[in-house]
Every structure is written in structure tokens, then in C-alpha cells.
Amino acid sequence: MTRRRVTVMSPRTAAARRPRYPVSREIDEQTHLGEVYMRSLLRTQFRLALFVCTVLACVVLGLPMLFLLVPELRAVHLAGVPLPWAVLAGLIYPMFVAGAWLYVRQAERNERHFEDLVERQ
């Protein structure tokens, strides 16, 4: 007795495939999945903002504490101006600018990652 080979095929092989539903359309139509994606982006951006604000707050609140706890620093003068005044009135602003620049750079990077994730799906 010879065995015969049988090919098993799905009956849907000739059926038309459904068009893919892009994630960007999910976001535009504000479906549940789109909301999940947007919440993840917002959560990421919020964590970044919270981190930057925490670092800046620690520096702004930490400097007066440093000058309070180390009295020798109060006696130091920088170009005729006491060091605490020079740091708190002038040298802290470049740090704010650097923090803002880093925040914007990282926020844009988060958005690019999100865009790549949406386009990949």
C-alpha cells in the first residue's frame, strides 16, 4: 500500500487580508489603544520634568543651606562681591539655562522614540 501525501491548506488563503490599522490612526481617533500610547508619552515627559525640577530645586535650596552650614564660604569674595551673592544672583542662571536646554533635548528625544514606536507598529 502506497501512502499519498496530502497538503493541508487553510480555507482563508484566498481571502483578502484586512488592511493594517496604524497606531497613528488609533491615536487620532482617540481609541483606547491610542489613549494608552498617549498616556505612556505623557508619563515619560512628566517623569523627565519632575526629575529636572527636583535637581534644580535641590541646587537652589541646597546652596543657601551650604552657605549657612559652612560659614567660611560666606567670607569669600568674588570680584568684591560676597560668594553667596555672586552664586545666587549670577552664577545660578547659566545652570538654569543648561537645565532647560537638557530638558528640551531629552523631551525631543522622548518624542522621537515615541514616533519611532508608533511608525513601527
From TrEMBL:
Transmembrane domains' residue ranges: 48-70, 82-104
Alphabetic keyword roster: Membrane, Transmembrane, Transmembrane helix
Domain of life where this protein originates: Bacteria
Name the record gives this protein: DUF485 domain-containing protein
Lineage: Bacteria, Bacillati, Actinomycetota, Actinomycetes, Streptosporangiales
